[in-house]
Amino acid sequence: MKFVINKANLLPAQRKFWDSPKFMPLLVGGYGSGKTHVGSLRMIRNSYINAGIPNQYVSPNYPMAKRTVIPTIRSFLDRAGVNYRFNKQDHEFYIHNWDGVIWIGSGDDPDSLKGPNLATAGIDEPFIQKAEVLDQMLARVRHPDAAHHEIFLTGTAEQLNWGYEVATDRADDYGVDVIVASTRDNTHLPEEYVQRLLAAYSDDQIAAYVDGAFINLTSGTVSDFRRDVNVEHREDIRNAPIIAALDFNVDKMCTAIGYRLENGIHWFDEIVLRDSNTFDMGQAIASKYPGITVYPDPSGKNRSSSSHQSSFQILRDYGLTVIARHSMPSQTDSVNAANRLWREKRMTVEPTCREIIRDHELTVWDRNGKIKKDLERSHMSEAVYRPCEYIWPINRGFVGAISR
Fold first, then answer.
1. Which residue of 86, 157, 212, 391 could cross-link 29, Cys pair, CB 3.0 to 4.6 Å?
2. What is the pTM of this model?
């Protein structure tokens, strides 16, 4: 008896996930987009490729595994008439036909995942699992006799946790291949199922729970930036003037570099300096983009305790043009000005600008309705606010600038 997987029956995103040659393919999708379906098939295939060597599929906990991956794997094997047994106590599938071994793990206690080496691993719903789950799988997927090694991930981006970081900032480090699946594309679902989701959820929830986008749903996100809308590669604007947006901050000084368009901005580069000062940032900007216009925050007009010059003057001494308000605009006006550009897709960003993307996705409001600040977050997005608010202000009565 042969167990045959027909790729022609897979949905487009499932096929991309199936064919991915990367070490860590990640299928992120909405509810009902077919993630568990293809993840279970992939685990069965891995048990065949690595006959006699254990493979492990990790769910957030055993109760969830009993509702998702376990019945899905059993259903495939039962329908195919495969001879197997499932040990409920050990949570182990043993497939007699090809000496296949699949262990079901629980991520609620990462220490319980320690054990013998594995051929492959799958992590279901990584966006609600602990980071230690990935650490354990990375340590264990190394069986010397395995024909194939990989760690695949399947889930909905319910939280922007380590799974989000792996998919974005660390994708090259881990060999991640991100494939996005929308619930709308699953032709096997009843039409009313999708309509119920669309009727029940907010726009942000639809983006995450239906279309598989990375959206911060755990707290109030400041920015209306959307990765699926505002991230794009552009080569058609190389002759546009270049501007810089700068946030003065010692721990993490951030500059965004963009093309100034007639009615918006396309950010294509970024500079992040830690434990730095305006001299270092001025030199960094001027060496790459000499003579460009910089929009910093108004605090730069003041002399610092470490220099007799203002930050504005330091930037000018590097040949840069400085444009800024006389005083700091309201936080509300700044955020609203930028958000209008994001919503209207008048502001876009290159995929390579990871700090701009990440900061806009992760910066949130605090309980007092102010932007929550820490050493990592809010600095790049606050830099971006400066030209947005100055050039396309919400409050038309706010005038005046320091410029050269």
1. 212
2. 0.65
